[in-house]
Amino acid sequence: MNKPSPYRGITSSNSTTPKFKKLSILVGLLLGFIIFKFSTNWSMNTEERIITEALNNFYRLNPKSRGANPYDASVTADRMAKFFPYDESPRRIEKSIWQMWKVKSTDPDFPHKDLVNKWKNENPTYKYNLLTDDEILEFLKIHFKDTTPEVLKAFEMLPNKIIKSDFSRYLLIYLNGGVYADIDTDLQKPVDTWFDSDRNVGFVVAVEEDINVENWQHYMTRRIQFEQWTFKAKARHPILRKLIAKIVETTFQAKKNDKLQAYYKDFKGVDRCASVDIMEWTGPVVFTDTIYAHMNSMDNPTIVDIDQQRDIAGELYGPEVGEDEIISWKFFAGLRAPVMIDDVVIYPRASFREDKENNCGKYCYVHHQFGGSWKNNGKGEIKPGMEGYDGPDPTEIEELRQKEVSKRDFIDDDEDYEEPLYDKTVRLAKRCLHPYTPY
Q1: Hey, which bits of 138-224 come out as E strands?
Q2: What are the residues facing 128 on neighbouring strands?
């Protein structure tokens, strides 16, 4: 039975009674106390507290989201596993190809039509899918709104097109399985001819870069980093589940800490310490960290090393490896052929970024043209030779890879030397507290 209302019996005719006056005084004192507390605590990051409480209350009170905690990746991952269980039966990766762009391929402004047609025409047994931004959002609503809405909410909170593009590719392959490829990738060999295609594997990716120099951090964020412009996976694979959950956590932490804006080293007017680095938020850093974390979580993994020889000359440079890192960057340094670690296949650098001028062997499958349309505040990448370019010389990088010498050998040690932009960014990043934390 409902408790009787304290206002019952009070009307306009007796509103001046002592009982009403006492109630009014109590209400006034309560409101005054609330206002006082509100005003005195505002400087103590009250906005952060209000946002946090509102989000927590949303998930606590929404029956379909009961048990959710978007600030904890492990909770989100467990919920995704419940609503989207992974099929561990032996099978091939789904025969689907997924690409995306902001407009349909029939639009006059659609780029790379010849490359898209190669993906479609040279894989006749694969279902080809090209989705626009609007179609992706509707697709995600169908699958996540009534299951794990924190995933959808995180996607909608993302402030930048490239971050949504990164997140979209992980979500599409997670839900459907198959091959993802950027539309500026040039297919060199049909997917069914790839090394992994007739094997029971669940996740396929390639090394992005391998620059064995002492100051490797000047060029890459991880010593052996994995690319995400082309990859394959079975639907609902644990790597993608963990990756998505980590991105959800980072997004909500960024919102809570008022850092919901994207940073990249060539973005103008963006405070590094009041934002989240794109590479960490949804890019190769979180992608790479999650893959390593998954491989190191395996119990006694079966490892198949096609070619145990590595292209390494001289000293091997890179960060220290922790005792719990059974599978680290060192295992993939100088990789010449695919490696299988249980159901994960790691291709060498050349596989998904073929050098057309040099014959890189039988494991070359895709050439990436590196359009970089999202860089430079959305104006596109400023490449070497273009006005405003401020980055490493790709010719120099290739020389370093071939000669395996330190970049310091090319720099005069004098007082006029200006510290590279990337090195400045690294030093600054160390002073910032970030919403992203690796696994």
Answers
A1: 178-181, 185-187, 203-209
A2: 97
Nearest C-alpha neighbor of 131 from the set 105, 162, 154: 105
Q: Helices (DSSP H) in 219-326: which residue ranges?
A: 238-256, 278-281, 284-296
- In-domain check, residue 17: no
In a domain, 84, yes or no: yes
Decide: 93 and 233 in contact? Cβ < 8 Å.
yes
**CB atoms near residue 433 (< 10 Å):** 7
Instruction: Give 188-198 pLDDT, tens digit per residue.
Output: 999 999 999 99
Contact 372, 380 (CB under 8 A): yes
Which domain range does residue 259 map to? 59-318+326-429
In tens, the pLDDT along 363-392 reads: 999 999 886 543 444 444 444 454 554 555
What's the structural domain count of the chain?
A: 1
φ, ψ for residue 20 (rounded to 5)? Answer: -70, -40
Distance, in Å, from the CA atom of 259 to the CA atom of 228, rounded to the nearest integer, reads: 24
> Which among 161, 185, 397 has a CA at the least distance from the CA of 264?
161
**Beta partners for residue 339, in sequence order:** 305, 346
- For residues 87 and 234, what is the distance between their CA atoms, to the nearest angstrom? 9
Q: Where is 340: in which H helix or E strand?
A: strand 339-341
Tell me the pLDDT band of 421, cut-offs 50, 70 and 90. Answer: low
Looking at residue 51, its pLDDT comes to: 63
Residues contacting residue 216 through CB under 8 Å, at least 6 positions apart: 223, 317, 318
Assess contact for 397 and 211: CB atoms under 8 A.
yes
- Sign (positive/negative) of CA torsion 294, 297, 298, 304? positive
Is 169 inside any structural domain? yes
More confident residue, 58 or 24: 58
Is residue 369 in a domain? Answer: yes
Between the CA of residue 376 and those of 127, 159, 174, 380, 428, what are the distances in Å?
A: 34, 16, 29, 6, 20
| 3 state SS of 116 | helix
Q: Which two tokens stand for residue 356?
A: 């057309």
Determine phi and psi for 73, rounding to 5 degrees: -60, -35
Least confident of 14-28, 286-300, 346-360: 14-28
pLDDT at 323: 87
DSSP state of 2: P
